[in-house]
Design brief:
This protein has 305 residues and is mainly α. Helices cover 73% and strands 1% of the residues.
C-alpha cells in the first residue's frame, strides 16, 4: 500500500504474472501433507463428509452473490467476490480446527474432497452466479484449476511417498517456502489493485467480514441441523468459513485476467486468518463433550500441515 511499485514489476515482467507459479508452490506444499487415509476416511464418516462438502459449495457462493448485489459491486469486482465464495476450503482450516479442538481428520478430509471437486463445482458456480457480471469461460477455468491446484497437489502427494527419507528436511523447509509464497502473493495483488482497494476499502472489508462470519454461522447451524455432533459441527463451520484464497487469486489473474477481481481474495486471506484464530481461541476454552471421541480419528499434531 505504501510502496506498491516494488511489487508491480520484477525483471521486466509484471509481478502478477508470477502469481500462478507461487500458487503452484503453495499447493505442492499442501500435497506433501496428504495421504490416502485422508480420502479413505470418507467411508468412516460419510454423512459428515457429504454435509460439509454440500454446505461448502452452497453457502459460500450463494452468500457471496447476495453480498455483491447488496453492496452494489459490478464487473470484475463482483465476479471476484463470487469467485472466493466458489473456491474450495483452504488448508489453513486444518490448523484452525486443531487449535479449536475440533475433528482434525474430518477437516483434512473435507479440504481434500472440496479441492478435488473444485475443477467441476467452481466453474459451475461461477457460470451460474457470476455470468451476469463478466463472461465466464468454464472450460478455461476448469483447466486452470487443474494446472494451478490439482497437478501440484498430486506432485506433492507423490513426492511425499517417494522422498520419505527427506521427510524432516521437507517438513522444515516447505512450510517456510509456502508462507513466503503466500506473503508474496498478497503483496503483489495488493499492489496491483491498490487504487481499487483505496476507493472501496471500507466496503470490501465489511463485505468480506460478513461473508467470512456468515460462512462460520451458516456452516455451524447447517451441520447441527443435519444432526452432526458438536465437534463435527465446529469443524464444518471452520471449513465452510475459510476458503482457498490463493486459488481464487490465481484464477482471477489467469482466467478473469483482472487484478481487481483478485481483491476480494486478498482481503479474505487476511480476514479469515484473524477471525479463525479468534474463533479457535473461543472454542478451545469451551470444549465440546464429543471432542475426545472425534480425536480418535485425528492425526497427531506432528502430522498437521
Amino acid at each position: 500500500m505504501v510502496w506498491p511499485q516494488a511489487f508491480r514489476q520484477w525483471a521486466g515482467r509484471p509481478a502478477p504474472s508470477l502469481v500462478p507459479l507461487l500458487i503452484q508452490i503453495i499447493m505442492f506444499g499442501m500435497g506433501t501433507t496428504l495421504s490416502l487415509r485422508d480420502f479413505a476416511r470418507v467411508a468412516q464418516m460419510p454423512k459428515a463428509a457429504l454435509v460439509g462438502t454440500g454446505l461448502q459449495f452452497v453457502i459460500m457462493p450463494s452468500l457471496a452473490a447476495l453480498l455483491a448485489m447488496a453492496f452494489g459491486f459490478s464487473g470484475p469486482m463482483a465476479a471476484g467476490i463470487i469467485l472466493i465464495g466458489a473456491s474450495p476450503g483452504g488448508v489453513a482450516s486444518n490448523v484452525i480446527t486443531y487449535l479449536a479442538g475440533g475433528n482434525v481428520a474430518l477437516s483434512v478430509t473435507l479440504t481434500s474432497i472440496s479441492t478435488m471437486l473444485s475443477p467441476f463445482l467452481t466453474p459451475l458456480a461461477m457460470t451460474l452466479l457470476a455470468g451476469t457480471y463478466i463472461e465466464i469461460d468454464a472450460g478455461a477455468m476448469m483447466w486452470s484449476i487443474v494446472q494451478l491446484i490439482i497437478l501440484p497437489i498430486v506432485a506433492g502427494f507423490i513426492a511425499n511417498y517417494v522422498l520419505q527419507r527427506y521427510a524432516k528436511w521437507r517438513d522444515r523447509l516447505l512450510p517456510v517456502v509456502s508462507m513466503g509464497a503466500i506473503c508474496l502473493v498478497l503483496a503483489i495483488l495488493t499492489a496491483a489493485a491498490r487504487d481499487q482497494l483505496l476507493e472501496a476499502a471500507a466496503a470490501i472489508v465489511v463485505l468480506v467480514i460478513l461473508h467470512n462470519t456468515g460462512g462460520y454461522l451458516l456452516g455451524y447451524w447447517g451441520a447441527r441441523g443435519a444432526g452432526l455432533p458438536e465437534a463435527d459441527a465446529r469443524t464444518v463451520s471452520i471449513e465452510v468459513g475459510m476458503q482457498n484464497a490463493g486459488m481464487a487469486a490465481g484464477l482471477a489473474i489467469t482466467v478473469l485476467q483482472s487484478a481487481p477481481a483478485a481483491l476480494a481474495a486478498t482481503v479474505f486471506a487476511t480476514v479469515m486468518n484473524v477471525s479463525g484464530a479468534i474463533l479457535a481461541s473461543w472454542w478451545r476454552g469451551r470444549p465440546a463433550q464429543d471432542v475426545a471421541a472425534s480425536r480418535q480419528l485425528a492425526p497427531l499434531p506432528e502430522e498437521m500441515p
